[in-house]
Automatic annotation (TrEMBL):
Stated name of the protein: rRNA cytosine-C5-methyltransferase
Active site: C233 (nucleophile)
Organism, as annotated: Paenibacillus xylanilyticus
UniProt keyword annotation of Transferase present: yes
Residues holding S-adenosyl-L-methionine: C111, A112, A113, P114, G115, G116, K117, D135, D180
Length: 551
C-alpha cells in the first residue's frame, strides 16, 4: 500500500514539481530499493563477486554499491557479521562518492551516526590518513562506534561533540568534511513511515537553524583548498539550495563544484528558492545560480530515495574538477596528502617503537591526571599504582613482585599473535590500549568515544585482545587462525556463542606459533572474532552483546 503523505507536504511538492508531480507520486506506490556496499577494507570486489550469496546489480553512482533483490535479507548471513558489506540505502551512497576521498586524506564526518557514510569513507582511505567521525547525540554514537569496529576501521577517532568544540581542537585540519545534515527527512517517507510521523517535529525551520550552524563551523575545520560535501535526505529548498546560497554568500572563498548530471542525478533548483523566498537578499541572489550545480536525487528519476548533495570547494588552492562521480585530485592536492600521511600515520620501525615505549613510560610517570567525565573518557598513561603488579610466573616458582610495563605486555602480545606494523600513537585510556591516528594531545578535553583502534586491555599483567582488533585483521595477519565454513552452519554456531570442537589439524599456525592460544576465527577466510584453542576445544570469545540472535 502506498505511503500516506502529509497533506501540506504533498501540496508543496505539487506546487514545486508541476507536471512532474504525478510521476513523483507514482514512485510512492513502489517498494523502496535495498542496497549494500561492499566493504573493501576487508574484501576486494572480485573476491566478493566470487562468494556473494545473492544476485547483485550495480548501483550506477557507487562502484562498490549493489542493489539487493526484494525479499533477500543480507543481514542474516555470517558475511554480514564479518563486516563484508554494509546495508545502505542506494541514494545515501552518493555523498561520499562525491567527496572524492583518497588514501591519506584527513576526513571529518561531522554528523555520522550510525556510521554508513563513515564506513564508506574508511574504505576509501584504505587505512591511510585520518577519519574523525562524530555525532552530537551520545546514544547514537554507540551504534557509530560499533559500526566503525565491525567494519574493521583502524584509523578512526569517534567523538561525541558539538562541531564548535571539534573546531577548537582541529582548526583547519581536514581536507575533506562531510556534513550529512540532520534534516526534515522528506526523502525517506517511502523507506521509513516513521519519518512521516516525525516530520512535524523535525520542522523545516528547526532543521535550517541546525544546518546553518553546522555548515558555518565546517568552514573553520576545513584546510585551505579542501572540500565540504553537504547532504540531506529532504526535498525542502530551504534546507538545500537556500542553505548553500546563504553559505556562499557569507563565505566568498567557496564555490559550488558542479556535479555532472549523470546516473539520473537532477540539477539543483535555484528557481524554487527565488519563488519561495522573494525577499532573498540581493547578494544571496547572485550566488544562488551556482546551486544549479548541486544534485537532487529523486525517487521517480532513479532507483533510490530522495537526497540532495552539494560539493563546496574552498578556492585558496588550485584544485581538481569534480569531473566524475568518483572524483579525482589535482597534483597539488596529492602532494599535500602524501606529506600529511607521513606526519600522521607513518608505521613505527622497531627503533621507533623502542623510543616510543621509553617516552610512554616517562609520560606515565609524569602523567597522573584524573580522567575527565564520561565513562569512555580517559587519559594517556596509567596510574602509577598499577604499574607494579603481582604475577604468578609458572608453577613452582611462587608469586613474585615484578614491574610489568603495560606497553611491553601489549607489544609482546602483538608480536606473538599478529603480523602487524603498528601505526600512529599508542594511547592508554585507563587500562584500554588504542592505536590512534591523531594522538592523544589533540583529543584533550573532547568527549572521546574511541581515540583510535581499540586493541585490548592490560589486566593483571596480561593483555586481553579486543574484539575490534580481531574485526580489523585479515586472516593472513594472524599467527593462529581457524577457518569456519558458512555453508555447514559452523560459523553461525560460533556467532551464537557456542563452544566448538576443532581438531588440532584445523588450527593454521604461522612459523613458530603453536596451536594453543588465541586464534583468529574466520568465516570462509574473513575475520569474525577471537577464540581460545586448547586440546581440541575452541573457547568462544565472541562478545555476548554482538551475538547472532536470529534462529
Ligand atoms: C542524517 S543523520 C546521519 C546519518 C549518517 N551520516 C549515516 O550515513 O549513517 C544526521 C545525524 O546528525 C546528528 N546531529 C544532529 N545535530 C548535530 C550537530 N549539531 N552536530 C553533529 N551531529 C548532529 C544526528 O544525531 C544524526 O545522527
Amino acid at each position: 500500500m502506498a505511503v500516506q503523505l502529509p497533506i501540506i507536504f504533498a501540496e508543496r511538492m505539487k506546487g514545486l514539481l508541476g507536471d512532474e508531480f504525478e510521476q513523483f507520486m507514482k514512485s510512492y506506490e513502489q517498494s523502496p530499493h535495498a542496497g549494500l556496499r561492499v566493504n573493501t577494507l576487508k574484501i576486494s570486489l572480485d573476491q566478493f563477486d566470487e562468494l556473494a550469496p545473492f544476485d547483485l546489480r550495480p548501483i550506477p553512482w557507487c562502484g562498490t554499491g549493489f542493489y539487493v533483490p526484494h525479499g533477500v535479507k543480507p543481514g542474516l548471513h555470517p558475511y554480514y557479521h564479518a563486516g563484508l558489506y554494509y546495508i545502505q540505502e542506494p541514494s545515501a551512497m552518493a555523498p561520499v562518492e562525491l567527496l572524492g576521498v583518497q588514501p591519506g586524506d584527513h576526513v571529518l564526518d561531522l554528523c555520522a551516526a550510525p556510521g554508513g557514510k563513515s564506513t564508506q569513507i574508511a574504505a576509501k582511505l584504505q587505512g591511510r590518513g585520518v577519519l574523525v567521525t562524530n555525532d552530537i547525540h551520545a546514544e547514537r554514537t554507540k551504534a557509530l562506534a560499533k559500526n566503525v569496529e565491525l567494519y574493521g576501521v583502524r584509523n578512526a577517532v569517534v567523538l561525541n561533540e558539538s562541531p564548535e568544540r571539534i573546531a577548537g581542537a582541529f582548526p583547519h585540519y581536514f581536507n575533506k568534511v562531510l556534513i550529512d545534515a540532520p534534516c526534515s527527512g522528506e526523502g525517506m517517507f517511502r523507506k521509513d513511515e516513521d519519518m512521516v510521523k516525525s516530520w512535524e517535529h523535525h520542522s523545516v525551520e528547526k532543521c535550517v537553524l541546525m544546518q546553518r550552524d553546522i555548515l558555518e563551523t565546517a568552514a573553520k575545520l576545513l584546510a585551505p583548498g579542501g572540500t565540504i560535501v553537504y547532504s540531506t535526505c529532504t526535498f525542502a529548498p530551504e534546507e538545500n539550495e537556500a542553505m548553500i546560497a546563504e553559505f556562499l554568500n557569507l563565505n566568498p572563498d567557496f564555490v559550488v563544484k558542479d556535479i555532472p548530471a549523470a546516473a539520473g542525478f537532477a540539477p539543483g533548483r535555484p528557481d524554487w528558492v527565488r519563488q519561495m523566498l522573494p525577499e532573498t537578499a540581493e547578494e544571496t541572489d547572485t550566488v544562488l545560480d551556482q546551486t544549479r550545480g548541486t544534485a537532487r536525487l529523486w525517487p521517480h528519476l532513479l532507483e533510490g530515495e530522495g537526497h540532495y548533495v552539494a560539493v563546496l570547494q574552498h578556492r585558496s588552492e588550485s584544485f581538481a574538477e569534480v569531473s566524475s562521480i568518483t572524483g579525482e585530485k589535482s597534483e597539488i592536492e596529492s602532494r599535500v596528502h602524501e606529506d600529511q600521511t607521513i606526519a600522521v600515520t607513518q608505521p613505527l620501525s622497531k627503533a621507533d617503537r623502542k623510543r616510543e615505549r621509553l617516552m610512554r613510560t616517562e609520560s606515565r610517570e609524569r602523567n597522573d591526571r584524573p580522567a575527565r567525565g564520561g565513562k569512555n573518557e580517559g587519559r594517556v598513561g596509567r596510574n602509577n599504582e598499577r604499574d607494579t603488579r603481582k604475577t604468578n610466573r609458572g608453577k613452582g616458582r611462587g608469586t613474585e613482585q615484578v614491574n610489568i610495563d603495560p606497553i611491553t605486555v601489549y607489544q609482546q602480545f602483538i608480536e606473538d599473535h599478529v603480523e602487524l606494523e603498528l601505526f600512529g600513537e599508542t594511547v592508554f585510556y585507563g587500562d584500554r590500549v588504542y592505536q590512534s591516528s591523531v594522538g592523544a594531545a589533540r583529543l584533550e578535553g573532547l568527549k572521546v568515544i574511541r581515540p583510535g583502534w581499540f586493541m585490548g586491555t592490560v589486566k593483571n599483567g596480561r593483555f586481553v585482545p579486543s574484539h575490534p582488533l580481531a574485526c580489523a585483521l585479515h586472516s593472513n595477519e594472524a599467527k593462529r587462525m581457524i577457518n569456519l565454513a558458512s555453508a555447514n552452519g559452523e560459523a553461525v554456531r560460533y556467532l551464537k556463542g557456542e563452544t566448538l570442537n576443532i581438531e588440532e589439524a584445523r588450527v593454521e599456525c604461522k612459523r613458530d606459533a603453536a596451536a594453543k592460544g588465541y586464534a583468529l576465527v574466520c568465516v570462509d577466510g574473513y575475520a569474525l572474532g577471537w577464540g581460545k584453542w586448547l586440546d581440541g576445544v575452541l573457547k568462544n570469545e565472541y562478545p555476548a552483546g554482538w551475538r547472532w540472535t536470529s534462529v
